[in-house]
Write a structure and sequence with these properties.
The protein is built from 19 helices and eleven strands. The chain is α/β, with parallel strands linked by helices.
């Protein structure tokens, strides 16, 4: 800190008199002047010692997740090097009763240190109830932009407060195709929705059936259709409209949402396009539909479904017996959006050790072990594509990385009565021939009022 110099001028009668007397006195023999001393050099302030790294040895941080078994073990293995470097013991606990246990402990004042929420809607509920720590206190916007794109940051923000950071993602915006027959026919991957419809017409002209579609799923019949609507919404409406729709402030019966259903209907209700027609859509199990893509003469050529469906092709090899491509955009104004799902991490306890772990969780290294095992796709900007064990999963990651917008599965964010109820049944009713306006009004009426 610089010190300000202070000067005082003291003038008094005595001082003035002394000066007069001195002027009248005989001159004294001058003495040799003493050499003036050089002013002392200003010393540079001592450099500050770097702050010592806090010693976290012996401290434990617990992460609570909805995952179980091998997934918990894989998650835990991400922290081997981090624990060695910091001394923090990171413990990952999993339970299928995640929501109940997490809420019970949080409300009792004994929260877990970190929660791995399976979807952002539940995280938002915790945040609004004051059960989560504001991550923006130590993770700045500038820092976050070095780790995630803005879309991911927005999805972890609740009412302007950074409440969660993303751990993993799944891609839903995919079209799977019968690769050997597709290639033999000389078909090319469509770049736009119109290109995809033109491809469908060409397949019909060549004597084939373009689409395999299966919405049957027992008590959850209809859910695959909700993914179609959500994907189309992202391609025909703004991200803000999508968010408003998911939040219940943009009605299903609005022209914007109705247009998305009608766009899906252009494929669903074209008898030449769909294997088994609309009856086949409602009677074909979503897990059986993929098998129709296989063989030299497939029953159909195209199927829209999420990345997880790769596990439903049996012994068929993805990339050889079946391929996939990104579901093309519709309106160029909205770029290349991606619909997906995933999990994100939030703080329940605010301590230096927990902050240290949360900072690590914003890096690709915090998901590397799971990425290398092929368990998940990391949304972190510093995740290395070379970590992925094969080209199939690496391709999913590239689609995610190139997305202009990412949004979470809308039905998973809506109230259960809608997202896991009337939305599902509404899809079934619409495919079954019900009037669309009536269907959409019914879904709106089912939205909880409290």
């Amino acid at each position: 800190m610089q010190q300000k110099n202070k000067f005082w001028l003291l003038v008094s009668g005595f001082t003035l008199l002394a000066l007069v007397l001195a002027a009248c006195a005989p001159a004294a023999t001058p003495e040799a002047e003493e050499p003036m001393e050089e002013p002392a050099a200003t010393e540079e302030p001592a450099a500050e010692e770097p702050a010592a790294e806090e010693d976290f040895t012996g401290q434990t941080v617990t992460i609570f997740t909805a995952a179980e078994g091998e997934q918990v073990e894989a998650f835990q293995s991400n922290f081997v090097d981090f624990e060695a470097e910091t001394g923090i013991d990171v413990v990952v606990e999993g339970s299928p009763d995640f929501e109940t246990l997490a809420l019970t402990r949080a409300e009792a004042g004994d929260p877990y240190d970190i929660y791995n929420f399976p979807q952002p809607g539940l995280m938002a509920d915790f945040a609004r109830d004051g059960l989560l720590v504001d991550l923006g206190q130590f993770l700045s916007q500038d820092y976050m932009l070095t780790k995630y794109t803005q879309s991911w940051i927005d999805l972890g923000t609740v009412d302007g407060v950074l409440s969660g950071v993303w751990h993993n993602a799944d891609v839903k915006s995919l079209v799977w195709y019968a690769k050997p027959a597709f290639d033999a026919a000389g078909y090319t991957i469509p770049e736009t929705w119109d290109d995809m419809l033109a491809l469908s017409d060409q397949i019909v002209a060549d004597g084939g059936v373009p689409w395999c579609i299966g919405f049957e799923s027992g008590g959850a019949t209809g859910w695959p259709g909700t993914d179609w609507i959500e994907d189309i919404m992202l391609r025909t409406a703004s991200p803000e409209d999508y968010d408003a729709w998911v939040a219940g402030t943009l009605d299903f019966a609005s022209p914007t949402v109705q247009a998305a259903w009608e766009k899906a209907g252009e494929i669903w209700f074209n008898a030449d396009y769909v294997l088994g027609g609309t009856t086949g859509i409602l009677t074909t199990n979503f897990g059986d539909a993929p098998l129709n893509l296989l063989g030299e003469t497939p029953n159909c050529y195209l199927m829209r479904q999420a990345s997880f469906i790769a596990g439903f092709f049996g012994d068929a090899e993805v990339g050889v017996d079946v391929g996939y491509f990104y579901l093309p955009p519709i309106d160029a104004m909205y770029g290349k959006p991606v619909l997906g799902s995933g999990s994100l991490l939030s703080m329940g306890n605010d301590t230096p050790a927990v902050r240290k772990v949360m900072e690590f969780l914003t890096t690709g290294a915090s998901a590397r072990a799971e990425v290398e095992l092929g368990i998940l796709i990391a949304p972190h900007l510093d995740a290395d594509p070379a970590w992925y064990p094969n080209d199939v999963i690496r391709g999913f990651a590239e689609i995610l990385a190139n997305a202009d917008t990412f949004r979470f599965d809308g039905s998973d964010l809506m109230p259960g009565a809608v997202g896991a109820g009337s939305f599902w049944t509404g899809v079934v009713d619409y495919v079954g021939g019900a009037d669309l306006g009536t269907v959409l009004a019914g879904i709106d009426a089912s939205w909880p009022t409290e």
